[in-house]
Design brief:
Layout (H helix, E strand, L loop, with lengths): L2 E5 L3 H12 L3 E5 L16 E2 L5 H9 L1 H25 L3 E9 L3 H16 L5 E3 L11 E9 L1 H14 L3 E3 L8 E4 L8 H4 L3 E12 L6 E4 L5 E5 L5 E5 L4 H6 L6 E13 L5 E4 L4 H7 L4 E6 L5 H18 L13 H15 L21
Parallel strand pairs: 1-2, 1-8, 2-7, 4-10, 8-15
Antiparallel strand pairs: 3-6, 4-6, 5-6, 9-12, 9-13, 10-11, 11-12, 14-15
């Protein structure tokens, strides 16, 4: 691990850059959109191992071993996040994290998620008590941390530069290892983009909505509601404006600020972390002899999933260890078709039993 170039200064890119720089590498992080003090581009999701229906979907698509591997990686990522939060003295608040829905078609999938979480070693609490201004279906309940994401990102950036790292708006002339850590990977479309769904989460920080936990809503208007340390609530939605999403549920709130965050979801639930060639333009700009890696498919959960990916890539770079799972670089056409039809049914409210279709299990590389 000598010269490392990372495209993307989000939590995944900066965390990996900091670790590599401290390990003795010469690291350049390339990003044109970093504005210290601004939340633009960041998702305010809590630090938690519970993220919607993640374990249920990973188990369905990839099998029990992959679900256990994800659980191990996220547990370690939460510890890594706690370590950075303590190192930078960033204020963080422990808080319950709940996954919920007000859509009856989706409600029973929460029980499947709860069972999947138990099979990988977690003990979610299943509760029928509504704790929102509107009725919701039962949810598995976990714990997590809420943190000012802007403050944490700025501390990561400062620590990276203080360690000798370079933040640049231009690609360096060459690098021994090149890593795409952008929401939409700098990669050849046929290899990875068929596994990703590009979305933009719209966020608003509001007053007037009091919550005792963070909420992840999984119905048609998927949203995240995350209490902040100052008594406000960060409300994010990937389908509409956050205030419109609240108003549709009879909730009024005064807005403090707005911002957007570009994200990519993995169509088969498992984030893409592994080897991949960069695009021709990026390759010509950085030299031909290099190892190319990619970290993508985190959705709005980059603060946890991104740190888990950073740990996997750092372990690979420092020890040569392979990645714990082998993501498919090109999804089978039949799988793409089922995914598109499943998303269409869901959007048109036609038999919205599952957000994702059932697909053949992929081979995983995992041992406990």
């Amino acid at each position: 691990m000598k010269d490392v170039m990372i495209v993307g200064a989000g939590f995944a890119g900066l965390t990996l850059g900091l670790w590599c720089q401290r390990a003795g590498a010469s690291v350049t992080v390339v990003d044109r959109g970093v504005t210290p003090g601004s939340p633009q581009g960041l998702s305010a999701a809590p630090v938690t191992v519970q993220q919607g229906l993640l374990y249920h979907h990973v188990e369905r698509w990839h099998g029990r071993d992959a679900a256990e591997s994800v659980a191990d990686a996220l547990s370690l990522a939460v510890d890594d996040a706690r370590g950075l939060i303590e190192e930078f003295a960033v204020t963080a608040t422990p808080i319950p994290v709940a996954t919920a829905t007000d859509d009856g078609h989706e409600a029973f999938w929460l029980r499947y998620e709860s069972m999947a979480m138990r099979r990988v070693g977690f003990e979610p609490e299943f509760d029928d008590t509504p704790r929102l201004p509107w009725d919701v279906r039962p949810y598995p309940n976990g714990t997590g941390l809420t943190v000012d994401v802007t403050c944490l990102r700025d501390h990561l950036l400062e620590a990276f530069i203080d360690a000798g790292g370079t933040l640049s708006e231009m690609l360096p002339p060459k690098a021994g290892t090149r890593i795409s850590a952008t929401p939409w990977p700098v990669s050849r479309g046929a290899l990875v983009r068929s596994r990703l769904r590009r979305t933009t989460w719209r966020w608003a920080e509001v007053h007037g909505l009091e919550l005792d936990r963070a909420w992840n809503m999984i119905d048609h208007g998927e949203a995240l509601l995350v209490p902040q340390q100052n008594g406000s609530v960060a409300v994010g939605s990937r389908s509409e404006d956050p205030l419109t999403w609240l108003a549709a549920r009879g909730v009024s709130a005064s807005i403090i600020r707005r911002w957007d965050a570009a994200t990519c979801d993995s169509v088969d639930a498992l984030p893409f972390v592994g080897h991949l060639r960069l695009s021709g333009a990026a390759r010509r700009g950085t030299g031909q002899r290099a190892e190319d890696l990619v970290m993508a498919g985190f959705g709005p959960w980059e603060l946890t999933l991104g740190m888990a990916a950073a740990r996997q890539v750092f372990t690979h770079l420092s020890t040569g260890a392979d990645f714990p799972w082998a993501p498919q670089r090109l999804v089978r056409l039949a799988t793409v078709g089922r995914t598109a039809w499943g998303a269409t049914r869901h959007a048109w409210n036609l038999n919205t039993v599952t957000p994702f279709p059932k697909a053949p299990r992929f081979r995983t590389r995992h041992s406990r």
